[in-house]
Amino acid sequence: MPLADARAQVPDLAIVPHDPVLDQNWLDRLAQGCARYTPLVALDSPDGLILDITGCTHLFDGEAGLIDDIDRRLTRLGMTLRHALGPTADAARALARYQTRPAPDEATAIRRLPVAALELDAEAATALVRAGLKTIGDLAARPMANIAARFGADAATALRRLLGDAPSPLDPRITPPPVATERRFAEPVASMPHATQILTELVDEAIADLTERGKGGRHFRATFFRSDGLARSIAVETGHPTRDSTLVMRLFAERMDALRDPLDPGFGFDMMRLAVPRLEALAATQLKLEGGEVRAAAMTELIDRLATRIGRGGVRKFAAVDTHIPEQAQLALPAIDAPPPTPWSVTEPGEPPLRPFYLFDPPQVIEVIAEVPDGPPHRFRWRRATHAIRRYEGPERIASEWWRRKDNAGLTRDYYRVEDERGRRYWLFRHGLYDEKPDPRWYIHGLFA
Amino acid sequence: MRESSQPLAGLRQRIARLAATGGPESRPVEDWLASGHGAFDAAIGGGLMVGRTHEFFAADALDGASAAAFAALLALRTPGQAPLLWLRTVDAGRRTGHIYAPGIAELGGDPGRLLLIETADPKMLLACANDAVRCAGSAAVIVESWGKFPLLDLTAGRRLTLGARDAGTTLLMLRLNAAPTPSVAETRWSIVAAPSRALEADAPGAPAFDLELLRWRGGPAGTRWRLDWDKDEQAFRDTALSGAVLPLAARRAVHPLGAEAA
Q: CB 3.0–4.6 Å: which of A8, A118, A247, B186 could bond A158 by disulfide?
């Protein structure tokens, strides 16, 4: 229908010119989002996505859960969805696009598909229908040789793929790393020192590439392909973008030393690849004469090295969180991500510290004797020793964050700062008021300096 | 005889040269970690020497928080933004508690300067400590350990000390629930929590510490102090006491000697 006719029928018609490139970009973004379900996502242009969900469904409580999740997310984006599951990629695709009648199982569903599902040219499709072969099932009952002779080898292949007799490989969309270098060897490299030497060359090549782009790498991944088919990847990360090959090689050496199961060349590596999946802008720096930059650089290098050796979560910095719940008031974030500094609350001058130096998380149960049930503690028993309390301050009442809880409930805590007869200071609390709970328990939550 | 004595003489010369230039004792110290308490700093020659190892023993497992806070406050009261590296094993959080940043902020320190390094076992702790002391630019390196630390023998201790000396970093060994053993530390302290000066309504006051100098390479040991932390001044000061405890006499007896050695 021409546009003028359409406008005549619907006067306030919204008109958008068709832009295949934008459509393709949108499909690409959807495919990126679907990487949450499986790493193997293939584009079925112009309007389809094929996901290989083998071994991924248990994360979503089965196939139904996974489909529900996809449905919910894509509907929220304003998409109309047709989906189908199939034993092979081609079968699933045909079911999603051509299935009109429900069927008890997948095999029957495929057999009930119209012959259009083969996506042959119009002439062949008409010929099939004229011959009385309306469904895939009709076609499958005929000898394959006759079909190939009459409609071409393509028709036979398409049919066998739909039925699962021929493999239907998926071409997954995998984002290539922005910088990658590799080396293939005619003769496998069987010695680790030689392999390290080649890795150094690869790092130098990658860094030359980075220098041209004015970028620095944050994440380097070396993959060693063994001639017997095994491949092993080793990755290192840095806290700041870097173009220093010595530093990267030192981190790689650190990582290889720390491997529980060391790299074994076996019969030799026949290929090595170095990828830099994460780049960041890095301008050329000039060192200060007084050495300030050098000191800061030494510290970041230490963080990188320790994080490579003991894991990125092993080296952490503290960040403040705005909450009253003591154990949630701090976050320890990996220092390699360089978390921004957060402001810490400042106390009134003249006040003693109201929060402990060491915190027990979870709090430890203690037995407390108090003079009156909801009064301050008199003595307490912790780790098989009894402590008599000489001084105390409290209670400091901290309510639970009921607005974050589904049941709007939660027990109030009464905190006491206490000092025993030897001068040690503890942070105790009673979990629950007496009108909230019949017999609230006492806990020790921290130790003061 | 001549052939064998020649290398010997060469070695002797080398030792003499090393003794003249190297060695932890001979290198001049430019800086100290001072407590801010005049008499205390003067008695140990200006404070805890930078570029050396200092040991803090918690006399009892329950005094761990006091020893840790004393070491951390000494390092965090230095001006600037130099990070404080704190190394401990992952099971330390269960034993002595997790380091609590809001508590450090309440003491007047900046928790943003703290860099926490948690390792799986004491062996890795020692390896990481060796790297950490060799990195210039930290306010101090605190290595927290629990109980006996058999890996930290004299050789390991000397390696750490040499690393600290070369990089000009200060190593504070925090030995919780451990008995003092011979080591190459510059000073060795025993730290116990002391009763605080009570505030209104008998509330516990500012942190108070009982310190005993067990060993000092630069002078006599055995001195005792009772200090408490003044967070507003960012300094340690005398605890105002009701006369029951007697650190004054001990200090008066040792003070001239200490000052002379300094």
A: A118
